[in-house]
Amino acid sequence: MIYLNFRRIFVQSLCTATLLALLFATFSHAQPNSRKTANAISAIKESDIKRDLFALAGDHFRGREGGSLDELKASVWIADQLRAMGLQPAGDDGTFFQFFHIQRTRITETSRLQIGTHQLTHGQDAFLLAPAIASVDAPLVFVGKGTPEELAKVDIKGKAVALEFSGTAPVELSYRRFLFGTMARRAAELVKAGALAVIWISNADAQFYFDRWTTSLERGRYDLPGGPNTRIFSQAPTVWLPASALDWIKQPGQQFTNVVNVESFNYPSVNIVAKVPGTDPKLKDEYVLFSTHQDHDGVRRAVAGDSIWNGADDNASGCVATMAIGRAFAKQPGKRSALFVFHGAEERGLLGSRYYVEKPTVPKGSIVAVLNAEMIGRNAPDSACILGQQPPHRNSADLVNVALSANQSEAHFKLDTLWDKPEHPEGWYFRSDHLPYARANIPAIAFTTLLHPDYHTPKDEPERINTDKVTRIARWIYLTGWDVANRPQRVRVDEGFKLER
């Protein structure tokens, strides 16, 4: 909590002194340092947020792809802004940076895929679902939608099996998760039954995701070095084709030839880390961590003539809000220190936050809470969501109550609670940088305004961001963090906290 500082109180009698002391104790707990808070919150300005947003999410940084020079250039720009605000470096070796390596495993350009007379190129007109070594030369059989009745009529052993995707997603899964999960599961079943390869042809619903989500398959898999996604193995290939392939894939007597080679290599990404030291001699060794990520998807396949996937909402909006919060703390530090971490390579699998939790630049036990900003600039002006608000995702009722109180008294957002439920089909709680901290039993929540149709498309441009909303959420996060930074006791981790997966 924040405490009001009275310069002097001259008392005329013991009764008056006692009464004033009681009033002071009560008021200071209920109304935390209102004058200093008001002065500091004024540092969070929409004009600054809009300027920074258009700079960071503009075409100059080319979408800030994790592990690219564009991400590194954007990171240097952010560090320069933090230095100019008066924040101190808190990365490695006295810098604002914590570099780490990410390992990429991808299909090589020498790989070859041919079906009948159709020469196909991975990343353009066909996609392999996993970068695995394979060499297959086998007859192709088309089995319709792959129903048990259709499969019973065909001997698939030793064959490459082609089938059209079908099915409706259950309520607990988004169509995207249903699509990828079904293709992987059904392919494994067909391979177990003797198929040497599986070729999926998109139906109308799957075609949307073929056009929109296959850019990640083109890039391959990413992980921290030695992580599970770095393993290179051999397996029967699973190929995904567009709906336009359905006519020619049905032709009988075709041969499937697939030679897949895989390569793996490392390159750098970076976390940007800054701090504002606290003012209390003891509490300054504890940290309130404001979290976000600076990377996005970079330059990819053009959609409507635009090949730069700018990531204005995802997550330049979170970055510029976090920068604004840094300005507020630089103007008026809290009792505890404020730590600001802009994570790299979040889109690659939360790699920057996973790395920081493994190798924090401050003692891990000194981090009292994590307030994560993830996509905070779209949808209805008065709507927002806290991830980690309710069990099993809630790991600190104390922290959630602080955020709810700040919203009720200041921000006044209508809070969506559906997206934080474990049965929500998007599994949104598990897709941002608060997660590694929560798994490490550090109180952690995320502030978000949720998905929208421009998510992970070139249409996520700065012109589409509601900068007034970003400003209001930045102030909400700031007030939550200011409370946590100044209260006498740390916010606690809920006893028995355990995520469902």
TrEMBL record:
Keywords: Signal. The keyword Plastid does not apply. SUPFAM superfamilies: PA domain, Zn-dependent exopeptidases. GO terms for biological process: proteolysis. One of its GO terms (molecular function) is metalloexopeptidase activity. It comes from the Bacteria. The keyword Signal applies. Residues 271-477 form the Peptidase M28 domain. Residues 1-30 form the signal peptide. This is M28 family peptidase.
